[in-house]
Design goal:
Blueprint lengths: L3 H7 L4 H11 L8 E2 L2 E2 L2 E3 L5 E9 L2 E6 L6 E2 L1 H9 L3 H11 L16 E3 L8 E5 L10 E4 H9 L4 H9 L3 H11 L2 E3 L2 E3 L7 E4 L2 E6 L5 H10 L5 E6 L6 E6 L7 H16 L14 E2 L7 E2 L6 E3 L1
Antiparallel strand pairs: 1-2, 3-4, 4-5, 5-6, 7-18, 8-9, 8-10, 10-16, 11-12, 13-15, 14-15, 14-17
Helix pairs in contact: 2-3, 3-4
Length: about 300
């Protein structure tokens, strides 16, 4: 049986379950605004879209109550049951699948609850995913490099990426990215976006190149560089930058030491500067559309275990 407590732990005490479901009904809106132990009144799809959904923390779990319909109340799993129209183990399995939660049956043999590459047997790194705007510091889900690759290559961010690149005013560009783009913290899984709130490191480092004149040439050179263990590479939202995610061994050196060393190597080898914000564990990285994004080939053949 899948553990309900583990699901609540992986979804920020259940608050992400509400956000996941509400976003299905209101895809172009900020569906949940959390302030401490309570959320601002939200639209309720089960009460004619009225803003009567009260979500609050009680005994370590975010519960809900409709302010008009007294009988419409319960915990996050009760709310999920209203949407998926299922209960028990079937509901738990649905949440694990739909929210990409790294959870499996605890009784399963050799269970680790992670994505594994069929080619190498390596566990694929996971990290926190956040919904826009950038001011939202509470993660929506834990995803893998494979998930990020697929969404970057897919259609989800195509229109907003094109719209961003049509802008010319720097202030408008910064505002558009900050309010419209979802983002991730490639360095690991966080309870909130802050260096001191990390739950688990991913063993990955983000190299952020800005204002490039030859983006694709540098991209290919980075991919072919045997001194860099490249996990994922994609063109930045602006179209003039490059995001390169590499694997690092945190047992050998601490995160910031890796950043300093790799930055020096990049400068000597490619005469390029890396954005210094990459030294921060909780550094945010926006997710754009890039149909030519690169991922380590062995990751394309992966399954949950």
């Amino acid at each position: 049986m899948i553990d309900e407590k583990e699901i609540l732990k992986r979804t920020q005490c259940g608050s992400n379950i509400y956000a996941h479901i509400l976003s299905r009904y209101y895809p172009n809106e900020i569906v949940l605004e959390q302030s401490g132990r309570r959320c601002k009144p939200a639209k309720n799809p089960f009460n004619q879209d009225k803003r009567t959904l009260d979500i609050f923390e009680k005994d370590g779990v975010f519960c809900f109550q409709d302010t008009e319909l007294y009988n419409l109340n319960g915990n996050p799993l009760d709310f999920a049951a209203l949407h998926y129209k299922m209960k028990g183990e079937d509901l738990l399995k649905m949440l694990v699948q739909q929210m990409h939660l790294p959870i499996t049956d605890p009784n399963a043999k050799d269970n680790r609850g992670k994505l594994i590459s069929l080619d190498s047997g390596a566990i694929i790194p996971t990290f926190s995913y956040f919904r826009a705007p950038i001011s939202n510091i509470h993660p929506y889900a834990e995803i893998s490099v494979v998930d990020a690759f697929r969404v970057i290559k897919g259609e989800r961010y195509k229109l907003r990426t094109a719209e961003l690149r049509s802008l010319t005013d720097p202030k408008e560009i910064r505002k558009f990215k900050a309010t419209k783009f979802d983002y991730v913290t490639f360095a690991g899984v966080f309870s909130k976006r802050a260096d001191n709130s990390i739950i688990q490191t991913s063993g990955m480092l983000t190299l952020d190149f800005d204002h490039l004149t030859e983006v694709r040439e540098l991209k290919q050179a980075i991919i072919e560089d045997r001194n860099l263990n490249v996990e994922l590479v994609f063109i930045s939202p602006s179209g003039t930058g490059l995001k390169c995610i590499i694997a690092i061994n945190l047992e050998k050196f601490p995160f910031k030491k890796w950043f300093e060393g790799v930055s020096g190597y990049i400068k000597r080898t490619y005469q390029q500067e890396i954005d210094p914000s990459g030294k921060d564990l909780s550094r945010a990285c926006f997710l754009p559309h890039d149909p030519e994004a690169y991922i380590k080939p062995e990751y394309l053949n992966a399954i949950f275990i």
